[in-house]
Specification:
The protein folds into two domains: about 200 residues, Jelly Rolls, CATH 2.60.120; about 90 residues, no CATH class. It has no helices and 19 strands. The chain is globular. The chain has about 300 residues and is mainly β. Strands 1, 3, 6, 9, 12 and 13 form a six-stranded antiparallel sheet that branches. A hairpin with a 6-residue loop joins β7 and β8. It is about 0% helix and about 40% strand.
């Protein structure tokens, strides 16, 4: 299986100050954005920028940052990168502009670079002239720039997309990004003129975690009156009602499968037991809960479930 990541036109990147790869000479007007294996329903939006110098150079336009990966991976020089970007064009054929990229892995905080999955800064198929048409440009199963390295749980994939200019003149360049939910994906085909969703695909099957969400479960307790020897056991009946939490992106499964409350013998005298529950095990669909216990409330903190491919 492969991993397809979508390229929204807007959103908040988790690493606001992450520097671009050092192989880019330019990052003027850089946009840092999140990327996901699902669509966030941003409208397709055209980005237009003008070359600032007539030099052979690489210009990074977009830096897409993934959620944390939920496992470690051993990347190799055989890992491939594919992508399709729509509405590519240059205002004049002297723009001599080509689709370029760097895909790499960094630590969750961005402070450590693990390695490069792929890098292409060269000539491929030049962008078409704007007055003629706007078309897709692609890279298909490239291994250029790939390296052998290990990534770890919590690391992020960084996708940087931009231009290679082979002595371009100072002309306007176009590319379009976005991920509207109701719009189909582009085929990995060059020269398409339709308005569909761009994407990047890695040959390696990667899974991602997500932001931590919380569900609050209210406990309505039936008091138990305890008498007799302090060395005893008792049981309490507790009813659970879950308030589902809404999350952005991959949906959070929130239906409870089973709840088991068990109280061990406790040396408590006097009237009702309030909070002498020693162990609680909760089985919930869609994730692995972590439980905190207070007198009459349990807070379940649940990781967003893995996306199903």
């Amino acid at each position: 299986m492969a991993t397809r990541l979508y390229l929204p036109a807007s959103g908040t990147a988790p690493l606001a100050d992450l520097a671009v790869d050092t192989n880019w000479e330019l990052s003027t007007s850089l946009a840092r954005l999140p990327c996901f294996t699902w669509k966030t329903n941003t409208a397709l939006a055209l980005t237009q920028l003008t070359w600032g110098a007539e030099l052979t150079q690489q210009w990074c336009w977009k830096q897409y940052q993934s959620p944390p990966m939920d496992a470690g991976y051993s990347w190799t020089t055989s890992d491939t990168v594919s992508m399709v970007i729509g509405k590519c064009a240059e205002a004049a054929t002297t723009g001599d502009t080509h689709l370029a990229y760097v895909v790499r892995v960094v630590s969750g905080d961005g402070l450590t670079i693990r390695g490069v999955v792929g890098l292409f800064h060269g000539t491929s198929t030049e962008f078409p002239k704007t007055t003629t048409t706007q078309e897709t440009r692609i890279h298909s199963a490239r291994t250029d720039g790939a390296s052998n390295f290990t990534s770890y749980s919590g690391d992020r994939i960084i996708i940087e997309i931009g231009l290679h200019g082979a002595t371009p003149t100072l002309v306007v360049i176009d590319m379009k990004f976005g991920d509207p939910s109701a719009t189909a994906d582009f085929a990995l085909t060059e020269g398409l003129t339709t308005d569909l969703c761009p994407w990047v695909s890695l040959s390696r099957d990667v899974s991602f975690g997500g932001p931590t969400a919380s569900d609050t479960i209210a406990l309505a307790e039936a008091p138990a009156i305890v008498t007799g020897s302090p060395n005893r056991s008792t049981s309490e009946t507790v009813s659970l009602t879950e308030a589902p939490v809404a999350t952005t992106g991959s949906p959070l499964g929130s239906a409870l499968d089973s709840v088991s409350l068990t109280e061990f013998p406790d040396a408590i005298t006097g009237p009702p037991l309030g909070s002498a529950i020693d162990t609680i095990s909760i089985g919930e669909a869609g994730g692995t809960p972590i439980v905190r216990v207070s007198d009459l409330e349990v807070i379940v903190e649940q990781a967003v479930p893995k996306e199903k491919k």
